[in-house]
Amino acid sequence: MPPSSVSHDRLTDLKQFGTDPGSLHADTYISKNFTKNGPLVVVLHGSTQTAEGYDRGSGWSALADECGIALLYPGQRKTNNPISSFNWFKSGDSRRGDGEPLSIRNMVEQVVDDHSIDPSRVYITGMSSGGAMTSVMLATYPEVFAGGAIIAGLPYRSADNLIEAMVRMKGYGGPSDHRLDALVRGASTFDGPWPTISVWHGSSDSIVDNANADSIVRQWQKIHEVEGPPTRVEEVDGFPRQVWCNTDGQEVIEEYIIKGMGHGTPIMAGGDEGLGKADKYMLEVGISSTRHIAHFWGLSE
């Protein structure tokens, strides 16, 4: 480990990572079987959560041990937000080159350099406010990420202040499909190839309505040139998976709506393939979003 790091719990405190305009914390987990040019997954916790708690619930570090993955856990501070929510709806924290997105970008750059990570194999996922901030990162720094997974989140720039955020979370209003597309295209000067998109949401989510999941899909459909109905619908662990493939046959967008699930990250803790631990907003529903997201990104067998 770099000399700037100090261990605590299962994660390791990343002491230095360049400028930190968003005043965020950073932890890492580098599996013992991680090898040079391996992949990095950035994991963003939800409101009222910590990096350590989200790691325990989701099982990302356990999967990292299986597959040789490096993990980066940006963490919010209560001095920035009283419920430890990423400030995805604030103008200073939703633009390239500023606030929380730049802090996270600088963390990624530090970890990539420290551990000789393949820069073409960097991915990001998050739940709730972390899911919404995942949308921010994919739009503002698309050149950094090969793929992103948004769990119980919202589209990029669907809200520009706290009042709008509360309304959008309930599934009301929001930008048109044309505007959603334009917001991503206008967030950077990037012109592709764009990150792949994985979307997960509970059908009974009363905190962030699942209308937001469909809006996220629509935000990225035109960008990936896969407008219209899914290429196919299949069943995975008893749940429907919708998939959109581009003209090359590559899966570029997937969506899981977990029937009967509330607000949280879907996990499957039991059995040979089990990962994580059930907790508040870490919901045992018989499917591991962590394992399937890693598979979508080609990180696991």
TrEMBL record:
GO terms for cellular component: extracellular region. It comes from the Bacteria. The keyword Iron-sulfur does not apply. Keywords: Hydrolase, Signal. InterPro entries: AB_hydrolase_fold, Esterase_phb, Plant_Biomass_Hydrol_Est. GO terms for molecular function: hydrolase activity. PANTHER family: BLL1128 PROTEIN, UNNAMED PRODUCT-RELATED. This is Esterase. The lineage of its organism: Bacteria, Pseudomonadati, Pseudomonadota, Gammaproteobacteria, Oceanospirillales.
